[in-house]
Amino acid sequence: MISDVAEDEEKWLAAGIAGLQQNAFYMHRALDSNNLRDALKYSAQMLSELRTSKLSPHKYYELYMRAFDELRKLEMFFKEETRRGCSIIDLYELVQHAGNILPRLYLLCTVGSVYIKSKEAPAKDVLKDLVEMCRGIQHPLRGLFLRSYLSQVSRDKLPDIGSEYEGDADTVTDAVEFVLQNFTEMNKLWVRMQHQGPARDKEKREKERSELRDLVGKNLHVLSQIEGIDLDMYKDGVLPRVLEQVVNCKDELAQFYLMDCIIQVFPDEYHLQTLDVLLGACPLLEPSVDIKTVLSQLMERLSNYAASSTEVLPEFLQVEAFSKLSNAIGKVIEAQVDMPTVGVVTLYSSLLTFTLHVHPDRLDYADQVLGACVKKLSGKGKITDSKATKQIVALLTAPLEKYNDIVTALKLSNYPHVMEYLDNETNKVMSTVIIQSIMKNKTCISTSDKVEALFELVKGLVKDLDGTLHDEIDEDDFKEEQNSVSRLIQMLYNEDPEEMFKVICTVKKHILTGGPKRLPFTVPPLVFSCLKLVRQLQGQEENPFGNETSTTPKKIFQLLNQTIEALSIVPAPELSLQLYLQCAEAANDCDLEPVAYEFFTQAYILYEEEISDSKAQVTAIHLIVGTLQRMHVFGVENRDTLTHKATGYSAKLLKKPDQCRAVYACSHLFWVDDQENMKDGERVLLCLKRALRIANAAQQMTNATRGSTGSVTLFVEILNKYLYFFEKGNPQITISTIQGLIELITTEMQSDSTTPDPAADAFFASTLRYIQFQKQKGGAVGEKYEPIKV
Fold first, then answer.
1. Residue 246: per-residue pLDDT
2. How many angstroms separate the CA atoms of 339 and 289, rounded?
3. Is the dihedral angle over the CA atoms 174, 172, 74, 216 positive or is it negative?
């Protein structure tokens, strides 16, 4: 059916073009022979093709453009005729004898153009006559194109100031009157098009009408080009007349397009000075008009105008632009009760952008916009519409981008209230954007109340929001989110220990509500922030001013203990053990023996009760030994207790090689270089001998199960320990002991039952080279190593 109509249209268009070309041919022949009567006859017949009602606007436009080209040639002929002495007035009368009204009016407009150029009559009179005569065509499509032709031929002949057609004192008023009258009539014809034809074709007609909108809009463009229109004339005469036509037409398509045209074609300073009038029309428009786009474009233009020069900013204050726009948006939303959420948020997002450009120093204005948005959204719950959500994100991002400082955004009391309308996923995205802004701008958030406000904003990342299920979370995304929270915690700092302690307490309060999945990410940075504060207070006397509430290392350690204990719900024993050992080391540096002992006790309890994986046990033992070796705060009794426990754990590891390595590592607990009271050569030797026995047992087990004694790596490692303590001056480590161990390793390596191990061979060779190198050094070191034979 549709294809048949399209084929018919093509045929009618082809027939129309053929008729037009045929008559144009005869018209050209008449023009060439200067035969005015025949030229008028054939031009009228040519223009009669435009009387068709069978073509769609798109096809009619093709036909019109061909006729337009021919009319330009006819206009040139009329100019030549007047130069040859033909009276333009007679010509103006003559064309009015054409048989049909449509050709007559096209010819009249063409001659009228020449008439105005001849200046034999005032331009305003000719234009008035033409615009009145065009009322004769009331068919919407034909009338629109006729008036479009009139607008086209007259646009350079308006009696404007400075124009060659300028008339008396009211010349600009005449030009404006002509354009406005033509615009009004064209708009009426355009609106009337929707009622032409059956109701079932309405959608098609609206599409066709949309294609013709520029014909109407060109009048407003012509109006904006009239030099003589000053602000007063625009304010009192032009804008009210245009808006009256826009409001009264009561057509959704026309109202939206024409409001958009007004905003786009007239100067920004005119919009600023006529905000009352322009905004007053908005609530009067049809409820279905997309007013959010219109107002958003107006605010965008005004924002750009404000950004163009600081000199124009006083104008905005003078006209109270913010309050007028804010009130207008409120009235529009009230008038359009069915306005979707995306429309409401878009309007406030545009208003906020405008406010941040024009009044960057007025945070109360920005907060007012956010508050108004919250008020309009109240009762709607979480926003599920993706477009509306996108606009809320734009609304929340605008202050961050403008100020590059989250601290400023935190002063906006309504900012967190807007975030509450985001769904959980988008809330997380927005929280991430806020944290990224802090990272990018290296923003320092240094007070507990600001931290409180910040964590309230990013709570979507800090704890589970209602209804979120862990199963739905992508693990990689979750890790990235929590890592960003961890980085945020590290950014919080205040030089004043009292205030920093308050910041830490605030962070602790928030992160401990995060649930077991988040704590392994958020507790470590908090612990290290605490330890940083401890180092800052290191050496400070306990309550130097006798103030019970002052921050002391002991107080911080109490908080640390509570914080690490929170990891027990995860559980994360390996992480907790590492953190306890870090705290013990910090307590050691502060000379707090009971605190350090307590942290070690907690670490040992975790090792005994929670860590069962053999690999984790090995790692834990080496961490314990390494930390304990660096401790200097313990008295003899406490140190012996902890050391005894550590060596006991080492000997109870599951695998013999792990046992051996842990035991010889314990030897360092009895020999600390810079502490004379911690050099016990005998116990070092005991550890190394015990390690040798375990290495030997490991070889025997390998031999029993696999038929070979395995690698000698453990023996080489123990040899290196012997050499270390020998070099450090341990009197219990003798040359004969080292010599015996070298020979043992050499024998084992030459044994047929030993499994070949290139790495162990290289390790042993490297050790022997070291001994040789020390011999060659000479001096005391050379003498010491000289007796060792390699």
1. 94
2. 10
3. negative
Q: What is the spatial distance between Cα 159 and Cα 174, in angstroms, rounded to a whole number?
A: 7
Strand partners, 710: 754
Q: What share of the chain is helix, strand, coil (3-state, %, to 5)?
A: 75, 0, 25
Give yes or no for a contact between 564 and 527, defined as CB atoms under 8 angstroms apart.
yes
Structure tokens at 634: 């313990």
Residues paired with residue 671 on neighbouring β-strands, in sequence order: 679
Q: Long-range pairs for 27-33 at CB < 8 Å and ≥24 separation?
A: 27/70, 27/74, 28/73, 31/73, 31/74, 31/77
Closest to 722 (Cα-Cα) out of 673, 683, 685: 685
In this structure, are residues 399 and 409 in contact, taking their beta carbons and an 8 Å threshold?
Answer: yes
* Residue that the structure tokens 């050790």 belong to: 767
Distance CA 200, CA 204 (A): 9
Alpha helices by DSSP H, 310-385: 313-319, 321-335, 341-358, 363-377
CA distance 565 to 178: 85
Instruction: Determine contact, residues 134/150, Cβ cutoff 8 Å.
Output: yes
The 10 Å Cβ neighbour count of residue 540 is 15
In terms of phi and psi (left: phi > 0; alpha: psi -120 to 50; beta: otherwise), the region of 447 is beta
Peptide bond preceding 571: is omega within 30 degrees of 0, i.e. cis? yes
The answer to whether 491 and 436 are in contact (CB under 8 A) is no
Do 790 and 771 contact (CB within 8 A), yes or no? yes
What does each C-alpha distance from 476 to 479, 480, 481, 699 come to in angstroms? 5, 6, 9, 44
Helical spans, DSSP H, in 652-757: 656-666, 681-706, 713-727, 735-750
Could you tell me the two tokens for 239?
């804008």
| Neighbour count for residue 731 (Cβ, 10 Å) | 11
Tokens of 365: 């204005």
Whether the model pTM is above 0.85: no
Model confidence over 87-119: pLDDT tens digits?
Answer: 888 888 888 887 799 999 999 999 999 998 888
3-class secondary structure per residue, 578-610? HHHHHHHHHHHHCCCHHHHHHHHHHHHHHHHHC
Is the predicted pLDDT of residue 546 greater than 50, yes or no? no
- pLDDT at position 540 is 61
Per-residue tokens: 499: 């205030």
| SS3 label, residue 338 | coil
d(CA 25, CA 43): 10
